[in-house]
Design a protein that fits this description.
Layout (H helix, E strand, L loop, with lengths): L1 H26 L4 E16 L4 E15 L6 H4 L16 H30 L1 E4 L7 E2 L4 H5 L6 E7 L4 E2 L5 H7 L5 E8 L2 E8 L1 E2 L5 E2 L2 E2 L4 E4 L5 H24 L10 H13 L2 H18 L8 H14 L5 H31 L1
Antiparallel strand pairs: 1-2, 3-12, 4-11, 5-6, 5-7, 7-8, 9-10
Enzyme class: hydrolase
Organism: Anaerorhabdus furcosa
EC number: 3.4.24.-
Length: 352
C-alpha cells in the first residue's frame, strides 16, 4: 500500500501545480497542446477541443505543453498551426509571468485548503508559545549547561554558522532536534544576557534533545470564520522554516538532511499508517514545499523562468536562444545532481 499512497500524494500535488499553469494559459488564450500526468510512454489520452489530456506510464512528474514554449513545437505537433498571438511568447510579459506563477499559487492554495479542513475537523488550534524555558529535564544537556526555568531564549548559534532568533518556541525545535553539533544559546535571565553551550543527545527516534520544556500552548477554538486565518498563520510559519532551511543548504549546511523520492516514500508510508489526517497534512506540507522550491531562480523552474522574462523586459528584447538553452540545460543538470545526492542520502539513512 505504501507505493500506492506515494503515487497518490505526488499525483495530487503535480496535478494541482500543472492545472494552475493550464488554467492561467487558457485564460490568456495560449494554445495548450497537451496536459500530461506522468512521464514516459503514453498509456491513454483524451482529446479535448484543443488540448489532449494524457496519462503516462511513470507516475512522477507531469507537464503542460504550451505553444511557443519549445523550439521543436512543429516537429512534436506537426498538424497544428498556432498563430504567434496564441503562443506563450506571443502574449504580454505580465501575462507570461502569471502563467508561470500560477502553479505555485495552486500549490499554496491546496496547502491552505487542506490545513483549514484539518483545523475545522479538530475544532482547535494550538498557538506556539513564546521562546521561554518552562522546565528543564534533570541531567539533560540544558541542565548541565546551566539553563534554568524562566530563561528567555533570544538566539541560538549553531556550530555551522546558522543563527536562529526565535519568535516562537517552535522556531527552535524545527532545527535543534535535527542538529547533532554544538549550539550556543543566548539567554535573557532577569535582563542579563548569558551564553550557554549545549549539545543535544539523540533519543530513540534519532532526534537530538537538549531537555528544554516549552510553556503550555494557547488553544483556540476553530470555526468557519477563523479556520482560514489560522491556516494562513500556520503556512507562514512553515514557509519561514523552509526558507531558513534553504538558506542553510545554500551555505552548505544540513546537506545530510536532504531527502529525495526514497525519503518521501518512507514518510508517506509512515503517515498513511497513522490515518487520513496525517496523510492529508503531509500532502499540504509537500505542496507548500513544492511551491516554494519552484520559486527558486533556476531557469528550469518557474522562478527562474519568471526571472528570464524580467530580464527580457529590462533589455527590451528576447534572450539569445543558445544562451537560454544553455542555462536551462545547466540548471537541469544541477537539479538532477541534487536529486541523486538526496537519494543517496536516503539510502545511507536506511542502511544506517
Amino acid at each position: 500500500m505504501g507505493i500506492i499512497y506515494f503515487i497518490l500524494v505526488l499525483s495530487v500535488i503535480i496535478i494541482i501545480h500543472e492545472l494552475g499553469h493550464l488554467l492561467a494559459a487558457k485564460a490568456f488564450g495560449v494554445y495548450c497542446y497537451e496536459f500530461s500526468l506522468g512521464m514516459g510512454p503514453k498509456l491513454f489520452s483524451i482529446q479535448g477541443k484543443e488540448t489532449k489530456y494524457t496519462l503516462r506510464l511513470i507516475p512522477i512528474g507531469g507537464y503542460v505543453a504550451m505553444a511557443g514554449e519549445q523550439e521543436d513545437d512543429m516537429e512534436l505537433y506537426p498538424n497544428i498551426d498556432v498563430p504567434r498571438n496564441r503562443s506563450i511568447k506571443g502574449i504580454a510579459h505580465w501575462k507570461r509571468i502569471i502563467v508561470m506563477i500560477a502553479g505555485v499559487v495552486m500549490n499554496f492554495f491546496l496547502c491552505w485548503i487542506i490545513v483549514s479542513g484539518i483545523l475545522l475537523n479538530n475544532g482547535a488550534y494550538a498557538i506556539s508559545p513564546k521562546p521561554i524555558v518552562d522546565s528543564v529535564v534533570a541531567d539533560s544537556p540544558a541542565e548541565i549547561a546551566g539553563i534554568e526555568s524562566g530563561d528567555i531564549i533570544k538566539k541560538v548559534v549553531f556550530d555551522d554558522g546558522t543563527v536562529i532568533k526565535p519568535k516562537e518556541f517552535s522556531d527552535l525545535t524545527v532545527f535543534t532536534q535535527m542538529y547533532s553539533g554544538k549550539m550556543t544559546y543566548t539567554i535573557d535571565r532577569n535582563g542579563e544576557l548569558m551564553d550557554f553551550e549545549v549539545q543535544g543527545v539523540p533519543n530513540e527516534m534519532g532526534l537530538y534533545i537538549v531537555g528544554i520544556g516549552a510553556p503550555t500552548s494557547e488553544v483556540v477554538k476553530i470555526n468557519l470564520l477563523n479556520a482560514g486565518q489560522y491556516s494562513f498563520d500556520y503556512m507562514v510559519s512553515m514557509t519561514q522554516d523552509i526558507f531558513k532551511s534553504l538558506s542553510r543548504l545554500v551555505q552548505g549546511n544540513g546537506l545530510d538532511q536532504l531527502s529525495g523520492p526514497v525519503g518521501i516514500y518512507q514518510v508517506t508510508a509512515q503517515q498513511a499508517s497513522q490515518g487520513l489526517p496525517n496523510l492529508l497534512l503531509l500532502i499540504a506540507l509537500l505542496s507548500l514545499n513544492v511551491g516554494i522550491f519552484n520559486l527558486l531562480p533556476l531557469p528550469v523552474l518557474d522562478g527562474g523562468r519568471i526571472l528570464l522574462v524580467l530580464v527580457e523586459i529590462v533589455i527590451g528584447k528576447p534572450l539569445n536562444k543558445k544562451f537560454e538553452i544553455g542555462i536551462m540545460t545547466a540548471s537541469m543538470v544541477l537539479l538532477f545532481g541534487l536529486m541523486i545526492f538526496a537519494t543517496w542520502q536516503d539510502i545511507l539513512r536506511i542502511f544506517n
